[in-house]
Amino acid sequence: MTTSYVYASTRTPFGRLRGGLAGVRPDDLAATALTGVLATAPGLGPAEIGDVVWGCANQAGEDNRDVGRMAVLLAGLPTSVPATTVNRLCGSSLDAVLQGSRAVETGDADVVVAGGVESMTRAPWVLPKPAKGFPAGDLTAVSTTLGWRLVNDRMPAEWTASLGECNEQLADRFGISRERQDEFAARSHRLAGKAWADGFYDDLVVAVPDTDLVRDEGVRDDSTPEKLAGLKPAFRADGTVTAGNASPLNDGAAAVLVGSGAAADRIGGEPLARIAGRGTSARDPQEFGIAPVEAAERALARAGIGWDDVAAVELNEAFAVQSLACVDAWRIDPEIVNTKGGAIAIGHPLGASGARVVGTLAKRLAESGDRWGVAAICIGVGQALAVVLENEKGARA
């Protein structure tokens, strides 16, 4: 077994629903991220890419089923470069990174591009096919943007509750107040705005052709807990989850260049971080928000370290309440979590978020000189993924 590394990462700005990227097809967004990450390795011949592994949660429309292959073709890579598309809902692109790292470690490929895309704006409506021709009644078009659709009647009702209701249940279970959630959300916006102002994202984010979006569209630098407190609950009349303390609906794409140590010369630079441990977990579907707790514990065990060694955490902020529940369960310093902002501010285009947190974590470790970091993401229907990265030059635990 060889070792796999993160060499580079790029992403598009994340646009709001019906916002600055609404006119861009998901396959074009994917091609932009793919082209962007390969531009960081100009000496790497495209034909040397062993595989492209791409995540996407939808695939029902312009994603065209295998959007990874579409991205390869639209990016102008040789037709000999293979590509696959994986779907683990919100964790799709983190799954792509983990699958790419396994391919490198087993010797199946020396260089893999992993990533993901989602256009929640352009997600189509779908119609179920009638059992018989010429049905007399009406058919209802169902949105594919987010959540359950065309639910099997055999599924227990508690499993198919809305994502927001599931998080209200977490707030009740763990006693996480509206005030804590709003404070966490405001912090996400404040830190994202500061990271953009400080130039942290300048070389991580690539422009999308024929658009004017230059930074993540949802970041509100002036957000405060007091302003967020004025929003009405979105899922229960007396609830705590609002549009302000949950991630929005977004469009965007992200890519990660994964390779072996031997690939450094061809890539043209030293790796940012070693992929040191991976973790997957699952529990009851309505408990998806706290599934990252176990996934991260498994990844840390496989890396041979504990939370005391970890200096940086990138946890995808699907909702403030589930993020707080995970941080509380890990018993870590909240100040090491999402120091460059999180998905509440930056956005959560489902298929792209996993690759985003990996790229952000790798750069954070390189910037700070810290050694160990964890990236994790919750996934609808009760799953989660996590990865441990090691900055081998890191001097501090």
Q: For the CA atoms, what is the radius of gyration?
A: 20 Å
CA-CA gap between termini: 26 Å
| Share of helical residues | 25-40%
CATH architecture of the domain at 4-121 and 248-389: 3-Layer(aba) Sandwich
Largest sheet: 10 strands, mixed
Please state the overall shape, judged from the principal axes of the Cα atoms: globular
H/E order of the elements? Answer: EEHEHEHEEEHHHEHEHEHHHEE
Counted by DSSP, the helix tally is: 11
The tally of beta strands, per DSSP, is 12
In round numbers, the mean pLDDT is 96
Helices and strands: which structural class? alpha+beta
Poorly predicted parts: none
Strand content: 15-25%
Q: The CATH topology of the domain at 4-121 and 248-389 is what?
A: Peroxisomal Thiolase, Chain A, domain 1
CATH class descriptor of the domain at 4-121 and 248-389: Alpha Beta
Any idea what the CATH superfamily of the domain at 4-121 and 248-389 is called?
A: Thiolase/Chalcone synthase
